[in-house]
Design goal:
The protein is of the alpha/beta class and about 150 residues long. Helices cover about 40% and strands about 15% of the residues. Strand 1, helix 1 and strand 2 form a beta-alpha-beta unit.
C-alpha cells in the first residue's frame, strides 16, 4: 500500500496558512499537510534535521512555498531543494504575493514547477489553492525517490 501523500506548506503568514488549509480541506484531500513558518524550518523538515530528524520517511508530493519568509527566504529554499539529489524531483509551487518579475524569473531559473501569485480576494485565493491541491496532490504522478 502506498504511503499517504503529504504536502509541505512553507508560509509565515498565519492567515494565509489558515486559508490554505481551509481550502485544501474543502476539497477533501486525504493528504497530510505539514506546515512550517520559515525557510530554515522548511529546510530542516526536508533534510530531516533538528526537530524533524524522526519524521516519517518519504518526501512530500509537493512543496507550496512562500517567497518572503524569515530566516531563509523562499528562493534559497528552492535553490537548496533543486540542488539536492534526494529532493530535486519534488515539485515546488511558489505561492506568493510577489508580482516582481525578478522573483518570477529567478524562481523559474532555479527550477520551480509553478509560480502562483496569491489572489487578494478571498474567493479567488480559495479557488487557486483548491486547483493547486487537486493537481499536485491528486492528479500529478510523482517520480520515485532517489
Amino acid at each position: 500500500m502506498r504511503d499517504l501523500k503529504r504536502i509541505l506548506l512553507a508560509e509565515d503568514d498565519r492567515r494565509d496558512v489558515e486559508l490554505t488549509l481551509a481550502a485544501l480541506e474543502e476539497i477533501n484531500l486525504a493528504n497530510e499537510i505539514d506546515v512550517v513558518s520559515d525557510g530554515e524550518e522548511a529546510l530542516d523538515y526536508l533534510f530531516k534535521r533538528a526537530k524533524y530528524t524522526d519524521r516519517k520517511n518519504g518526501n512530500p508530493v509537493v512543496v507550496l512555498l512562500d517567497l518572503k519568509m524569515p530566516k531563509v527566504d523562499g528562493l534559497e529554499v528552492l535553490k537548496q531543494i533543486k540542488k539536492s539529489e534526494k529532493l530535486c524531483r519534488i515539485p515546488v509551487v511558489i505561492l506568493t504575493s510577489s508580482k516582481m518579475e525578478s522573483d518570477l524569473i529567478t524562481s523559474y531559473n532555479l527550477g520551480v514547477n509553478a509560480y502562483v501569485v496569491k489572489p487578494v480576494e478571498f474567493e479567488e485565493f480559495v479557488k487557486a489553492v483548491k486547483e493547486l491541491g487537486s493537481f499536485w496532490a491528486i492528479l500529478n504522478e510523482t517520480p520515485p525517490e532517489k
